[in-house]
Design a protein that fits this description.
By secondary structure, this protein is an alpha+beta fold. The protein has two helices and eight strands. The strands form two sheets. A four-stranded mixed sheet has the order 1-6-5-4, with no helix packed on it. The longest helix is centred in the first third of the chain and has 16 residues. The chain is elongated, with a radius of gyration of 24 Å. The N terminus is likely disordered.
């Protein structure tokens, strides 16, 4: 029935509506947070971050104080598309490092769309809890 009402056919109407909705609700400058996991090992931590479609030239791993920052950008190639489900844009995530991390010797490797950051640990004596007295007003 839609074909009778609209001469361009159902698929063209659907495509036009989808593109219009996509543009209307598109967040310009949206920052994407990559999915990640942090594993604890005896002598190191292993941070694994999913960054599909990004290469070492599109990623930056850096230390900022007590935070490990991962930043990059997945740029969209200008082509005619018949389907657009891939997410493009800037990625950014800052991870607060555990207290026993050693800032020297951090290594990063990228393989199959997963960034692995190996963070060495240093032996520190466990700090006992400190009780804080509560004063009555």
């Amino acid at each position: 029935m839609l074909e009778k009402l609209w001469p361009f056919g159902r698929s063209r109407v659907r495509k036009a509506v989808e593109e219009a909705l996509e543009k209307a609700f598109q967040d310009v400058g949206e920052v994407l947070e990559p999915l990640s996991e942090l594993q604890e090992h005896e002598d190191h931590y292993l941070l694994r971050v999913e960054v599909p479609g990004l290469g070492p030239e599109n990623l930056e791993v850096r230390l900022e104080g007590d935070q490990l920052v991962i930043e990059g950008e997945k740029r969209e190639e200008k082509r005619t598309k018949h389907l657009a489900e891939i997410v493009y844009g800037r990625i950014y995530r800052a991870y607060l490092l555990p207290k026993d991390t050693k800032k020297e010797g951090i290594e990063a490797r990228l393989a199959k769309g997963v960034l692995e950051v190996r963070i060495p640990r240093e032996k520190r004596p466990e700090e006992p809890p400190v009780r804080i007295p509560i004063q009555e007003s």
